[in-house]
Specification:
Distance between the termini: 39 Å
Helix content: under 10%
CATH architecture of the largest domain: Sandwich
CATH topology of the largest domain: Immunoglobulin-like
Structural class: mainly beta
Number of strands: 14
Order of helices and strands: EEEEEEEEEEEEEE
Number of domains: 2
Number of helices: 0
Length: 179
């Protein structure tokens, strides 16, 4: 994989056993390669200084796999690697410590870590596609703090809340903060 030089601050290579069904997630793969970058980009937590790490999780032979997160914070699908469409809640999901994939989903995920005091989330609909971004429990309702796109961000039409997460669609890109 190639990353724009302007986004790469530090590359980290993980050599850990692949995800294997019915084994401890402690031996799960974090990634063949992970990359970190500073914030201000898409899907990241902003303000207060944080970083975004990437890791790969794969459903081999359409089987369920769990991959340990390389840190705490929300995870979002950064790049689909499989021909099978990866849909959160259907063939991939997350919990506090891991990401799970199933039914052929292979993807590069990003995990955002943030410093204390940063209470905003950047969520972007790339190529006019529906995207979900984690919204921390306890922050209350989000509001658009700053719209980043030319496409209008309108509650209920191009952005909203679903199962505690923010969703954006049809080109809406914005920074969200608690109400």
């Amino acid at each position: 994989m190639r990353f724009p030089l302007s986004q790469i601050l530090l590359s980290v290579i993980f050599v850990i056993a692949p995800c294997v069904q019915a084994q401890s997630i402690d031996t799960a793969t974090l990634a063949p390669a992970a990359q970190e970058r500073g914030f201000g980009g898409s899907g990241g937590w902003s303000g207060g200084g944080g970083r975004e790490e990437f890791f790969v999780c794969e459903s081999v032979r359409d089987r369920y796999s769990e991959c340990r997160k390389p840190g705490r914070g929300p995870v979002s699908l950064d790049r689909q690697l499989s021909s099978t469409r990866c849909v959160e809640g259907r063939n991939w999901g997350q919990n506090r410590d891991s990401v799970w994939v199933d039914n052929g989903c292979r993807a590069r995920f990003s995990i955002s870590t943030w410093a204390a005091g940063s209470r905003e989330v950047t969520c972007e609909s790339r190529k006019d596609r529906y995207t979900r971004c984690d919204w921390p429990r306890g922050w209350g309702s989000p509001v658009v703090y700053r719209q980043l796109s030319d496409s209008r961000c309108t509650w209920g039409s191009t952005w909203g809340m679903e199962r505690g997460d923010i969703w954006v669609d049809r080109g809406c890109r914005a920074i969200f903060r608690p109400r």
